[in-house]
UniProtKB/TrEMBL annotation:
TFIIB-type domain boundaries: 30-60
Gene: tfb
Protein name: Transcription initiation factor IIB
Organism from which the protein derives: Haloplanus rallus
UniProt cross-references to HAMAP family, sorted A to Z: TF2B_arch (MF_00383)
NCBIfam families, sorted: PRK00423.1
CC terms in the record's Gene Ontology section: transcription preinitiation complex
UniProt keyword Magnesium, yes or no: no
Amino acid sequence: MTDSVRGYTTERARARESEDETESTDGDSEQLRCPECGGQLATDTEHGETVCADCGLVVEEDEIDHGPEWRAFDSKEKDQKSRVGAPTTQMMHDKGLSTNIGWQDKDAYGKTLSSRQREKMQRLRTWNERFRTRDSKERNLKQALGEIDRMASALGLPENVRETASVIYRRALADDLLPGRSIEGVATSALYAAARQAGTPRSLDEIATVSRVEKDEIARTYRYVVRELGLEIQPADPEQYVPRFASELDLSDESERRARDLLKTAKEQGVHSGKSPVGLAAAAIYAAALLTNEKVTQSEVSEVANISEVTIRNRYHELLEAEEQIQVP
């Protein structure tokens, strides 16, 4: 083939391609134009229609909506409603990203598996569990997070406290703070710190009752973790214990409000300095119940607050004295 013939053929091919592109463009533009007035078409997703933006002609109706059936008004609500699996959580050692093989020995149709298939599935579950905890750190984390969840459930702590405690433990593990200390001790101290950070504190005695370590070890490990991780934890406020104590004793709102007033007065007088916040809260609850003519014994308050009756009597007199000093002109 000569150069002139080859050039002619190339020119013909280019011309044909340009014609095809022009035809496809014209076809697309015709499809996006109104058949009546030639105006621009727009899609109304709310009504499932395609309408002309100029004359309002409905070109198509009852279109299929491929979006979700729910509505969301902000990004947070959208993330909550999106069905793409369970959200990640710090309360699981793998953050909930791994899969589990169900314990029901049934197939997709609900039929029971044969003995051979059951044995196979049990082997798969065993290997799946082994792969989920591949090294010592993951096994450590799995045990600690299980302890945190168990203790938080026993103490009635909310989910945000469990998440915070899990993050604190992960930081302690990453900073290599565990050598020489028990897993249960660090997990308990992380939960104690998280409860205080969230404003739902529990006393050391309450923490020790659900923990597998002694109270002294919890306090020692807690101070160490807070110092090494640089956690900012404010001193416990006695008023934070009042709602829980009042709820467990079934006291009225008036008694709870009166107890808060007594504690505020004690702070103004400096009575709270150096005193146990749990003891002050228990004494305020007892004093408020007496002032509002509600029948509550020191023994009942002592049992709820997990503190001795002697402490309640001592703090009770101090609170009333501080109240009298304020009332005296």
